[in-house]
């Protein structure tokens, strides 16, 4: 559920930062126009004050540009992650559909291909040992997962308590 929250926050953050950026650009242009008036002697603003305001506005604009770049990169990363999840989900659905439409004997054969052993202990604690490791499954059916994106516990046996 966390990725849904991120997908809503990221575009909102990007929109907010872009609007702040546009406001700062307008403020900067107004200060530049005031600079011309100071040079012409038509403005009562102090040159030092105007220069400090210009410098401060420029720094804020650069900071907003950096934040916009980060938000856009986060949005791209999020979109790529969502695409990968969608592909994996579609593969799972096709396996599930295949399994659902099979006869009982075919279902047993499919499970036998994936499951090496099932252990039932006291209090109905069930452990399932698969024929292939998670890494082998990924090599066969999914794109290779990088170490930093690897889910914790991917190398362990699946245990249901």
Explained architecture:
By secondary structure, the protein is mainly alpha-helical. The chain has two domains: about 1-100; about 105-160, no CATH class. About 70% of the residues lie in helices and about 10% in strands. The chain is built from four helices and three strands. Strands 1-2-3 form a three-stranded antiparallel beta sheet. β1 (about 115-120) and β2 form a beta hairpin. α1 packs antiparallel against α2. The model is unreliable at about 1-10 and about 155-160 (pLDDT under 50).
List the helices and strands and how they pair.
Blueprint: H1 2-40, H2 47-100, H3 104-114, E1 115-120, E2 126-130, H4 134-141, E3 158-160
Helix pairs in contact: 1-2
Structural class: mainly alpha
End-to-end gap: 23 Å
Q: Write the H/E string, N to C.
A: HHHEEHE
- Beta-strand fraction estimate: 5-15%
Structural domain count:
2
User: How big is the Rg?
Assistant: 29 Å
Gross morphology = rod-shaped
The total strand number stands at 3
**Number of continuous helical runs:** 4
Mean pLDDT: 76
Short description:
The protein is mainly α and 161 residues long. It has 4 helices and 3 strands. It has 2 domains: 99 residues; 57 residues, no CATH class.
């Amino acid at each position: 559920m966390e990725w849904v929250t991120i997908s809503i926050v990221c575009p909102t953050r990007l929109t907010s930062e872009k609007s702040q950026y546009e406001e700062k650009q307008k403020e900067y242009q107004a200060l530049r126009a005031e600079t011309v008036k100071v040079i012409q002697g038509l403005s009562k603003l102090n040159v030092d004050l105007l220069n400090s305001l210009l410098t401060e506005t420029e720094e804020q604009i650069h900071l907003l540009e950096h934040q916009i770049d980060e938000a856009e990169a986060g949005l791209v990363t999020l979109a790529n992650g969502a695409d990968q999840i969608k592909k994996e989900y579609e593969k799972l659905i096709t396996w599930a559909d295949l399994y659902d439409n099979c006869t009982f004997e075919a279902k047993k054969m499919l499970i036998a291909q994936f499951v090496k052993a099932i252990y039932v202990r006291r209090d109905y604690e069930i452990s399932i040992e698969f024929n292939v490791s998670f890494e082998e499954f990924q090599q066969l059916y999914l794109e290779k997962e990088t170490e930093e994106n690897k889910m914790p516990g991917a190398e362990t046996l699946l245990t249901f308590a």
